[in-house]
């Protein structure tokens, strides 16, 4: 895994944490510049994740003779166990301490659909969300994995076009025609996976190398575009700047190489994403009962999220992934790029 991408994954995860802190504690009603920035822009962490996902999946499969079945088994082994664990933990918390999540409802059919990555209306009445609401992004991820698995039947140079065609078919024709999950899959955010694939193709061709000033300029332009925003679809407003951030960081890879801390932060980012809402809501619940200021409880929440994510990565994600790969009899090599710096 590219260390620059790991660093960006970590940054994206903690941006989402900041965004949800403002939502959970203040319902986005804030009056300080930094809080407003997280409230208004923190959600872009998801877009960065999607671009990175397209990049990583393309690079991870580029030099392998994987069948679609093997690919899906490995993706499920990597993504599902931790998500299932925290979904079931969420169900237990809602049942045991209903006052902590007053809007959440544990309905067996909805829990099952959540575990199967099938979008469905949340019984709480706030849209198409799984029980662990951050899992809505994983529903898109699983769609991307299924379509990319189909694209494995063709040569690597054609996979972008196959995935693009399949995304168009599912999201622009089938989903609206059948009104799948209230049009959930019609979101243009799916285009960000394609942006990641394009970056992966450029990287393998050695076209992501540049003097430091150029990617730094790219980062500055991307941040300026994110800050000012535009009244355009999300894939343009946040997807394109996210892609520019990713390709700029990839071009700076020589300056990131060898950083174990950044690698670890990136490794833990998935668990950070999965557990942070549970921790933040628990923090709000405690703060309300003890009369604490939200910003006083924030450092405790950050520490619990960080430590919890580390433990989750080491003993839940990594351990179950290795065990499942052994049981399933499939292997996934470390990404080794042909590009030399």
From TrEMBL:
Membrane-spanning segments: 42-62, 83-101, 134-153, 160-178, 184-203, 210-229, 235-252, 264-283, 295-316
InterPro entries reported in the protein's UniProt record: Acyl_transf_3_dom, Acyltransferase_3
Residue ranges annotated for the Acyltransferase domain, each copy included: 4-305
Molecular function (Gene Ontology), one example: acyltransferase activity, transferring groups other than amino-acyl groups
Keywords: Acyltransferase, Membrane, Transferase, Transmembrane, Transmembrane helix
Keyword Mitochondrion: no
Pfam families on file: Acyl_transf_3
Annotated signal sequence range: none
GO cellular component annotations of the record: membrane
GO biological process entries: polysaccharide biosynthetic process
Coiled coil (residue ranges): none
Protein's name according to its UniProt entry: Acyltransferase
């Amino acid at each position: 895994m590219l260390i620059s991408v790991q660093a960006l994954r970590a940054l994206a995860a903690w941006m989402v944490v900041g965004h949800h802190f403002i939502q959970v504690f203040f319902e986005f009603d804030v009056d300080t510049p930094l809080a407003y920035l997280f409230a208004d822009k923190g959600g872009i962490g998801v877009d960065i994740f999607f671009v990175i996902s397209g990049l990583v999946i393309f690079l991870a499969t580029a030099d392998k003779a994987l069948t679609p079945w093997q690919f899906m088994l490995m993706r499920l082994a990597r993504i599902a166990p931790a998500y299932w664990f925290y979904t079931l933990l969420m169900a237990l918390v809602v049942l045991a301490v209903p006052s902590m999540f007053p809007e959440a409802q544990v309905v067996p059919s909805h829990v099952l659909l959540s575990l199967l990555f099938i979008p469905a209306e949340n019984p709480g009445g706030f849209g198409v969300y799984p029980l662990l609401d951050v899992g809505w992004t994983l529903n898109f991820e699983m769609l991307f994995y299924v379509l990319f698995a189909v694209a494995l039947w063709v040569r690597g140079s054609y996979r972008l076009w196959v995935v693009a065609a399949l995304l168009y078919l599912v999201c622009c024709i089938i989903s609206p025609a059948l009104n799948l999950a209230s049009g959930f899959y019609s979101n243009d955010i799916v285009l960000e996976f394609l942006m990641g694939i394009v970056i992966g193709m450029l990287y393998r061709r050695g076209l992501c190398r540049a003097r430091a000033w150029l990617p730094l300029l790219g980062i500055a332009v991307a941040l300026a575009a994110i800050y000012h925003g535009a009244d355009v679809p999300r894939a343009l407003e946040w997807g394109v700047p996210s892609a520019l951030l990713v390709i700029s960081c990839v071009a700076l890879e020589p300056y990131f190489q060898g950083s174990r801390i950044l690698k670890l932060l990136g490794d833990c980012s998935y668990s950070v994403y999965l557990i942070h809402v549970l921790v933040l809501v628990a923090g709000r619940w405690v703060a309300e009962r003890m009369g604490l200021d939200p910003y006083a409880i924030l450092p405790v929440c950050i520490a619990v999220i960080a430590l919890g994510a580390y433990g989750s990565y080491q003993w839940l994600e990594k351990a179950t992934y290795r065990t499942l790969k052994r049981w399933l009899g499939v292997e996934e090599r470390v990404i080794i790029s042909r590009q030399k710096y």
